[in-house]
Every structure is written in structure tokens, then in C-alpha cells.
């Protein structure tokens, strides 16, 4: 299957990073390499460290962009950015990009089990070296745990019924495929509620994918590590695709911008908190009508930019 992914908010990111020709940049989410290759072209005397936890993204980039000699690819989770930079002897970076979520290649690959549109084994791992798959979660989590993740990570109103139906169904045999899971969800969500809105399985699939890949819990610590390793005026661009991710980024940026975290009732500041960043985008940047037409998958994308102080 061809590796294809249209980079989202492309011009806005490249402009937002304020790339220096000899700078060192980190692309935490290489994917199809669209952003990475554009950053690399703008820093011919510098370097791009491009990370992905999907070995197929790394291999595709090495084949497709073998002539780009200022890109170092790293097969790892971006949460390990501190160690990755140490390993590469990089003391300070000049900017970083995180383009969260899955690539079109992962979503459309019928073997990876990310999509409710294809029948595939229940997998959903970005990193195929990881042990936990969607199959473990769907068949191994208690009804209460399933309800919690579907409600929290999927923001699904029918979470309790979906969890109940999953647990009922698996009493007979393991749930093995995305197709089976879709038909269970369809039985659980009443017909009337399925008339409007997105595909009835969309939210549950998002929830299970987030749980399999532990997507939310690493965002905050990664932002902190990137800022800690960034030189003055370095830019951090983050693209999110749903409200849960965006809220984490927004709140972390707000925290990093504060110069005091003492309680309001305290007359004198005793904390040694310093402003670490300046927020460049008070409101997130969203795709233009033109981009939405060319790439409907960019619909929910939001870009937030901060600058290191
Ligand atoms: C939306 S795509 C990035 C697309 C890319 N910007 C482009 O221009 O093609 C997200 C990519 O990030 C990777 N990814 C997601 N979370 C990751 C993590 N925690 N560590 C490393 N890579 C991750 C996914 O495997 C996927 O390839």
C-alpha cells in the first residue's frame, strides 16, 4: 500500500516555526514526511531530527527522501525526546513540531485496524512492537473500565450501553475484528440516535485508539521536555485533532506562560516559577476553506504556537 498523507496546516506550521537556515529542529511526528521535508529544505545548514513510533513511517521516509542528508530519523516514542537529544549529542534545539494523531496511511491501511470502515483484526497500535492491542482492551477490560475510556476519550453519550454490549458479546467468544466491534456498537446505540451525526463507531474507535497508544498522558511531559531543551526564541508548533488534546496543550501553554503559581490569597510571591514561553496564538489557527476542500481530514485540526523566552 502506498504511503500517503497530506500534511495539515502546512504553510502555517512552516511559517510559525521561523526556521533558521542553520537551526536544529525536531519533528516529533514524521508520518508521511511532508512537514519534515519542508523544514529540512529551509535549514540546509542545519538539521531535522524526525521521530516516529511507526517503523513503516521511518522506512518510507528513508526510501522516498534518501537525498535529504540533513534529516536524522529516529524510531522511538516522542515522550523520550530528552534521551533522544542526549543520544544525538544535541544541547539545544531551535524549534519543534508535534502533529498529533494517526496518519492517513495508518488509518487507511486495512491491516492496521484503525478504521471502522474496513474489517480488520482489532489492532490500532502505532508501534507494532508494542504488546497491548485493541484486542486486549476490548476483550480484557472490565465493563467499568470500558465505560470510562469510551466516555472520557470518546466523549460518547452511549458509553455505558456500548460497554455493556461488548461485555455481553464476549461471553460467547473473543471479539476479534473491527467489523464485529462495529456491529456491537450499532446494536448498542439506538437507531434514533444514529440518524444524525458521525458514524456510530467513530467515538468508540477514537477512545480505544487513544487507550492503546496512551496518546493523552504523554503530551504534557513532552511539551515540557521540548521547552527545556529549546534555545531562546525557539518556536513550538502543536497540531491537535480533538478537544481533549487541544485542552491539554492550551492548559500547558498557559501554565508555562505564568510567572507565579502562588495562591491568590498570598500577598508576596514565594514560588520561583518563571515565565518559560510566550504564547503566539491566543486562539488556535484552523484550516482555511481552501484547505478543507483539498483535504477534508484537516477539518478538526487546530494549531497552537508558543515561543521560548
Ligand atoms: C498526523 S501524522 C503526522 C503527519 C506528518 N506531519 C506529515 O507531514 O506527514 C502522526 C504521526 O505521528 C506518529 N506518532 C503519534 N504519536 C507518536 C508518539 N507518541 N511518538 C512517536 N510518533 C508518534 C504516528 O505514528 C504518525 O505517523
UniProtKB/TrEMBL annotation:
It is an enzyme of class 2 (transferase). Keywords: Cytoplasm, Methyltransferase, rRNA processing, S-adenosyl-L-methionine, Transferase. It is found in: Cytoplasm. It catalyses: cytidine(1402) in 16S rRNA + S-adenosyl-L-methionine = N(4)-methylcytidine(1402) in 16S rRNA + S-adenosyl-L-homocysteine + H(+). Its EC number is 2.1.1.199. GO terms for molecular function: rRNA (cytosine-N4-)-methyltransferase activity. S-adenosyl-L-methionine binds at residues 33-35, 52, 78, 99, 106. The keyword S-adenosyl-L-methionine applies. Pfam families: Methyltransf_5. This is Ribosomal RNA small subunit methyltransferase H. It comes from Dethiosulfatibacter aminovorans DSM 17477.
Amino acid at each position: 500500500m502506498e504511503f500517503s498523507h497530506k500534511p495539515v496546516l502546512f504553510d502555517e506550521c512552516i511559517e510559525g516555526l521561523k526556521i533558521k537556515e542553520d537551526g536544529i529542529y525536531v519533528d516529533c511526528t514524521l508520518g508521511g514526511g511532508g512537514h519534515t521535508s519542508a523544514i529540512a529544505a529551509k535549514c540546509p545548514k542545519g538539521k531535522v531530527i524526525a521521530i516516529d513510533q511507526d517503523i513503516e513511517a521511518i522506512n518510507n521516509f528513508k526510501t522516498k527522501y534518501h537525498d535529504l542528508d540533513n534529516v536524522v530519523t529516529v524510531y522511538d516514542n516522542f515522550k523520550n525526546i530528552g534521551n533522544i537529544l542526549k543520544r544525538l549529542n544535541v544541547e539545544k534545539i531551535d524549534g519543534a513540531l508535534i502533529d498529533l494523531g494517526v496518519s492517513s496511511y495508518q488509518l487507511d491501511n486495512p491491516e492496521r485496524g484503525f478504521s471502522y470502515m474496513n474489517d480488520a483484526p482489532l489492532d490500532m497500535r502505532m508501534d507494532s512492537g508494542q504488546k497491548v492491542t485493541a484486542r486486549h482492551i476490548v476483550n480484557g477490560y472490565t465493563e467499568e473500565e470500558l465505560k470510562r475510556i469510551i466516555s472520557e476519550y470518546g466523549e460518547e453519550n452511549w458509553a455505558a450501553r456500548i460497554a455493556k454490549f461488548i461485555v455481553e458479546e464476549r461471553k460467547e467468544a473473543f471479539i476479534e475484528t473491527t467489523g464485529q466491534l462495529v456491529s456491537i456498537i450499532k446494536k448498542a446505540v439506538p437507531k434514533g440516535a444514529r440518524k444524525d451525526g458521525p458514524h456510530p463507531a467513530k467515538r468508540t474507535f477514537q477512545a480505544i485508539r487513544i487507550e492503546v497508544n496512551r496518546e493523552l498522558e504523554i503530551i504534557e511531559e513532552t511539551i515540557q521536555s521540548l521547552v527545556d531543551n529549546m534555545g531562546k526564541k525557539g518556536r513550538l508548533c502543536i497540531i491537535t485533532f480533538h478537544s481533549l488534546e487541544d485542552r491539554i496543550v492550551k492548559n500547558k501553554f498557559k501554565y508555562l506562560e505564568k510567572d507565579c503559581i502562588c495562591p491568590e490569597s498570598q500577598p508576596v510571591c514565594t514560588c520561583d516559577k518563571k515565565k518559560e514561553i510566550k504564547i503566539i496564538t491566543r486562539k488556535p489557527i484552523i484550516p482555511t476553506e481552501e484547505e478543507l476542500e483539498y483535504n477534508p481530514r484537516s477539518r478538526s485540526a487546530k494549531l497552537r504556537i508558543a515561543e521560548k523566552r
